[in-house]
Design goal:
Helix content is 39%, strand content 12%. By secondary structure, the chain is of the alpha/beta class. Strands 2-1-8-3-5-4-6-7 form an eight-stranded mixed sheet, with helices on both faces.
């Protein structure tokens, strides 16, 4: 971060730090790290004994409400629990991408969320969940507690529709990470809004390439997204071919347009504009766009009715379903809002997870310090 474009804007970049776990990090610790970079101002916002990324995402919501014309960058300390070569490469390339000039100031002037890679595999998201976003877009997103509750309700409705054969999950399994439940909610939050205009920095679409090779910004190039393969191009699965070739399955497939429409409707009560990229990216997009105009929030029921009402020889393969947890812990948004913020167009929010170990355990402490120092 200290050597990135975000630290070379002509004014100090503020890094707001939330810490979770063991209380190793305080303001003095951050001052020692950040003093090496004159263009970074690091502030320890709060420490929590337990929690997840949603605590820091709530801080971003607070910031963007105060500074709606600014941008916010979200980072987290991947590798503090399990530092290895794969995590180090992944952390570095994600950090390099979202703090680069093109992510901070996208060339097209349209992109409102930029990350290393943007995928549409089971939801609309940035793998690794690091990104830079316009505060004007973040202000459209639901508060995290409301979002988690509504998403859980939407998944519950989806599972009922699957049982009725109104929707199918032929392409992927019914798993919490695919549905965005529990701790996975944080990864899905940034991409679910219908006004999303994504862009990314990876020209390959190959996540594994960055796990085994040391790459840097010279290997990256900015582009509007999506530009990487969708879920229908995953190899070695006969289910993909079945869905491609059968309207009956394709229209009802949750992990294609039907599921996105379901989430947009249940969470936000609205759909993408007619000019949105989604209609040309997903199969049957034009049909769905016209159906949204005609049926509004009832679009799923109306479009899928003719498929699940009729007797079809094409059956969705059985998948192992689960019932969502009756009690998913909701971490409330803090009432505290950072005050006395310096003027500037950017702010970085850094989520640091610290292992529950004593600081005098030298190996754990050394590993933790290496990860945080490397990323900063």
């Amino acid at each position: 971060v200290g050597n990135s474009d975000i630290a070379n804007q002509g004014k100090p970049a503020v890094v707001f730090v939330n810490t979770i776990g063991s209380p190793w990090v305080d303001q003095r610790y951050l001052n020692a790290l950040c003093s090496k970079y004159s263009q970074l101002e690091c502030r320890h916002v709060q420490h929590y004994a337990s929690g997840d990324e949603i605590l820091t995402l709530n801080r971003i919501k607070d910031y963007c409400e105060m500074y709606p014309t600014n941008k916010a960058t979200y980072l987290h300390s991947k590798g503090t629990f399990h530092d290895n070569a794969v995590n180090a490469r992944w952390r570095r390339i994600l950090t390099d991408a979202v703090t680069s000039k093109d992510c901070l100031d996208p060339p097209d002037g349209q992109c409102n969320v930029c990350g290393f890679q943007f995928y549409t595999q089971w939801t609309l998201f940035m793998p690794g969940n690091m990104w830079t976003a316009d505060c004007s877009y973040i202000n459209k997103l639901l508060p995290l507690d409301t979002y988690k509750e509504k998403l859980e309700e939407a998944v519950g409705d989806t599972l009922l529709q699957i049982l009725r054969n109104q929707l199918t999950t032929t392409l992927l399994f019914e798993r919490k990470d695919f549905f965005g439940l529990d701790r996975y909610a944080a990864e899905h939050w940034i991409g679910i809004h219908p006004d999303l205009q994504p862009c990314d920095m990876d020209p390959t679409g190959n996540v594994g390439l960055y796990f085994v090779n040391d790459k840097n910004l010279l290997d990256l190039s900015w582009s509007p997204a999506p530009r990487h393969k969708g879920v229908l191009t995953i190899k070695n699965a006969k289910e993909r071919l079945m869905v491609k070739e059968n309207d009956d399955l394709r229209i009802r497939e949750y992990f294609l347009m039907a599921g996105n429409l379901m989430k947009w409707s249940k969470l936000y009560g609205q759909f993408p504009d007619h000019s949105s990229w989604v209609w040309s990216w997903f199969p049957d997009g034009e049909m769905w766009r016209d159906a949204v105009t005609k049926h509004g929030v009832n679009v799923i029921e109306e479009v899928t009715k003719k498929y699940y009402d009729k007797h079809s020889d094409v059956l969705s393969p059985p998948r192992s379903a689960f019932a969502p947890s009756d009690q998913i812990e909701i971490v409330p948004s803090s009432s505290h809002t950072s005050k006395d913020l310096p003027e500037g167009d950017f702010a970085v929010f850094y989520h640091i997870a610290t292992p529950q170990l004593s600081v005098d355990e030298s190996n754990a402490a050394e590993n933790f310090n290496e990860v945080v120092m490397d990323q900063l």
